[in-house]
Amino acid sequence: xxxxxxxxxxxxxxxxxxxxxxxxxxxxxxxxxxxxxxxxxxxxxxxxxxxxxxxxxxxxxxxxxxxxxxxxxxxxxxxxxxxxxxxxxxxxxxxxxxxxxxxxxxxxxxxxxxxxxxxxxxxxxxxxxxxxxxxxxxxxxxxxxxxxxxxxxxxxxxxxxxxxxxxxxxxxxxxxxxxxxxxxxxxxxxxxxxxxxxxxxxxxxxxxxxxxxxxxxxxxxxxxxxxxxxxxxxxxxxxxxxxxxxxxxxxxxxxxxxxxxxxxxxxxxxxxxxxxxxxxxxxxxxxxxxxxxxxxx
Length: 297
Hints:
This protein has about 300 residues and is an alpha/beta fold. Among the domains are: about 1-85, Orthogonal Bundle (Arc Repressor Mutant, subunit A); about 160-265, Periplasmic binding protein-like II (D-Maltodextrin-Binding Protein, domain 2), CATH 3.40.190. It contains 11 helices and 11 strands. Helix 1 packs across helix 3 (about 30-45). The N and C termini lie far apart (about 50 Å).
């Protein structure tokens, strides 16, 4: 059996698409189709079924995917262990959320690439639950999430730091003129929120419910930058990670509204599967993220 067929199979399973897999691999779609057919002939099973114009793994396909992940992981481990003296290479698939990708990771990724230029870093965005699921399914080598503390028997979780979730508004917002703000005043404010499923949107919803405040929002957006611009134009207030609004706070484009009862801290966490073999490049990246943050702290 050709190992390349397993790589192709994993890519099709990852995207649930022959077309997307061919684009990512740089193959003709006919080549991808042929490789999957050869695998099906090899194991005498059907690996994908079509459903409503899309494809999905059959039960046999899902089982083969587990074996494929193990086989490829073992091959990678062998290559790494047999070439420890060579420069690190290969690819790392990293899943994270928008705020971390845009406002936290860039300097760390830059430092990593300066030291290990041959390692390709594939950064993909998702919501936290999707990232954790992706780690379990082998889609990501590592996930970097911003959420309440996670505990899972299948996962290794490393807490990097606490991150405040702050309430921000336009500089001339009425709340900025009050000496003391009661949390129930938020019930009268237009709230701008992140997309459904975002971890800190759920935390904010719980905060409102705990104080019997009606959780109503005027705008829902999937982009942190769009939320900040809407707040700056006076369209509402928003809870956002401090890392995402530090520049606007320093320049006076936004202001932080302090409400003691609404102080929220989330945790920046590294997540990877307990059974995941850690390549030297993945170890180096994890160590970089952990060590640098501890030095900053």
